[in-house]
Design a protein that fits this description.
This is Homoserine O-acetyltransferase. It is found in: Cytoplasm. Residues 40-360 form the AB hydrolase-1 domain. It comes from Halogranum salarium B-1. With 404 residues, this protein is α/β, with parallel strands linked by helices. It folds into two domains: 5-176 and 293-389, Rossmann fold (3-Layer(aba) Sandwich), CATH 3.40.50; 180-285, Rna Polymerase Sigma Factor, Chain: A (Orthogonal Bundle). The protein has helices at residues 121-135, 148-159, 178-192, 210-224, 227-233, 261-274, 279-291, 301-305, 325-337, 355-358, 360-373, and strands at 5-11, 15-16, 22-23, 27-33, 41-45, 74-75, 80-81, 86-90, 140-146, 164-170, 311-317, 342-347. The strands form three sheets. An eight-stranded mixed β-sheet has the order 1-4-8-5-9-10-11-12, with helices on both faces. A two-stranded antiparallel sheet has the order 2-3. α2 links the parallel β9 (140-146) and β10. α1 (121-135) crosses α2, α3 packs antiparallel against α7 and α4 packs across α6. It is globular.
Length: 404
């Protein structure tokens, strides 16, 4: 059954960002599925380079993980059932799929570029609240997000604790660790050192900063995979000579050595990505993710979440070194400290961070049951139930992909 979609761009008027700067009219592109009955609204928060197309293919220019990126989870009869829930997904400010961002036109008619105000995850949350007000939605039945979208969902519990009944953070964390901060920093340097970046002013140029953005995406893509999944998928196999791509120039000695499957895969992913995403948006969104700290302005994560009186589900994957099971457990402990009903559901997986996108059979059942019955849902498990001698049973991966 096809999913019925309401797609639009809401004009929300003047918006002041947390940095103190304002724009005259914030535009937020969104999609809505199902019918609103007053108490059945669900907000889905997308990941870093995702879009509002959580279950559709409507927005021109989207592809890969920005195109129907959770269609196995959202739709009629699925875990987030659009015949039961009114589901809203909004493209965040700073992105490039219809919401205001660096690629949007400023009041002078020229693209903002790096004149666009710096954005934070808090700005995403506040913009989503404004959009829901525009749509006539008050309290949410649930807010759910994966990856940085999970950080966005957690921010709802801090900023609008009375506006949401259930919070779900999938493959997320209270903050990034130094290793991920370092890799994000390298990715941004890849973009800003591309001569075609031109200080962010490249929109009318014949050549865009494609090499820098391609390298940034390759760094990010490796972060999303686990050592086990890379070994299973690629090993050390050489790609055929007919698979050699000219994504990047190579040195003469390269002809003597194999061009490997893993290189071909990353080059292919990079080529697809640069055709659909904006380099400045990548800078803006990674900085928003890097800056997020659940406890900012509070003494602890628990203090930040103290006003939330709903229920929470944390879902993590054992092969994910980007956002580890230990990081999700830390957030679960913060909810427990506030006596919030919470479950930390751990999935045994080798897929790495991308597991939340590619394992609907593991994500869907606990999500469905949590939406219906909270932490008492039949398919929902919790690390506390499995503890022995005070230690949870899950075995978090080492946080370094590059260790032995």
């Amino acid at each position: 059954m096809p999913v019925e979609t309401d797609a639009d761009v809401a004009e929300l008027g003047e918006f002041r960002f947390e940095c103190g700067e304002s724009i005259e009219n914030l535009e937020i592109a969104y999609e809505a599925y199902g019918e609103f009955t007053g108490d059945n609204a669900v907000l889905v928060c997308h990941a870093l380079t995702g879009s509002q197309n959580v279950a559709s293919h409507r927005t021109q220019g989207t592809a890969g993980q920005a195109r129907a990126w959770w269609s196995d989870i959202v739709g009629p009869g699925k875990a987030i059932d659009t015949t039961e829930y009114y589901v809203v997904c909004a493209n965040v400010p700073g992105s490039c799929y219809g919401s205001s961002g660096p690629a949007s036109d400023a009041p002078d008619g020229e693209p903002y570029g790096t004149r666009f105000p710096p954005v934070s995850i808090g700005d995403w949350t506040r913009a989503q609240r404004a959009l829901l007000d525009h749509l006539g939605v008050g309290r949410l039945h649930a807010v759910v997000g994966g990856s940085v979208g999970g950080m966005n969902a957690l921010d709802w519990a801090v900023r609008y604790p009375d506006d949401v009944q259930r919070v779900v953070a999938v493959a997320a964390a209270a903050r990034l660790d130094p290793q991920c901060l370092a890799l994000d920093g390298i990715a941004r340097r890849a973009i800003t050192t591309d001569p075609n970046w031109n200080g962010g002013d490249y929109y009318d140029a014949a050549e865009k900063p494609k090499d820098g953005l391609a390298l940034a995406r390759q760094i990010g893509h490796v972060m999303y995979l686990s050592k086990a999944s890379m070994d299973q998928k690629f090993g050390r196999r050489a790609a055929g000579r007919d698979m050699v791509r000219d994504t990047f120039p190579s040195d003469p000695a390269a002809d003597f050595f194999p061009y490997r499957d893993v290189e071909s895969y990353l080059d292919y992913q990079a080529e697809k990505f640069v055709d659909r995403f904006d380099a400045n948006s990548y800078l803006y969104l990674t900085r928003a993710m890097d800056d997020f700290d659940l406890s900012e302005g509070y003494e602890s994560d628990a203090a930040a979440l103290a006003a939330f009186e709903g229920e929470a589900l944390l879902m993590s994957f054992t092969g994910d070194w980007h956002f580890t099971t230990a990081q999700s457990e830390s957030v679960a402990e913060a909810f427990r400290a506030d006596d919030v009903p919470v479950a930390h559901h751990v999935v045994d997986s080798d897929h790495g961070h991308d597991a939340f996108l590619v394992e609907p059979e593991n994500v869907g059942p606990p999500l469905r049951d949590f939406f219906h019955d909270g932490v008492r849902g039949r398919a929902v498990t919790d690390t506390v139930d499995d503890e022995e001698d005070g230690e949870p049973e899950f075995a978090p991966v080492h946080t370094s992909l590059f260790s032995g």
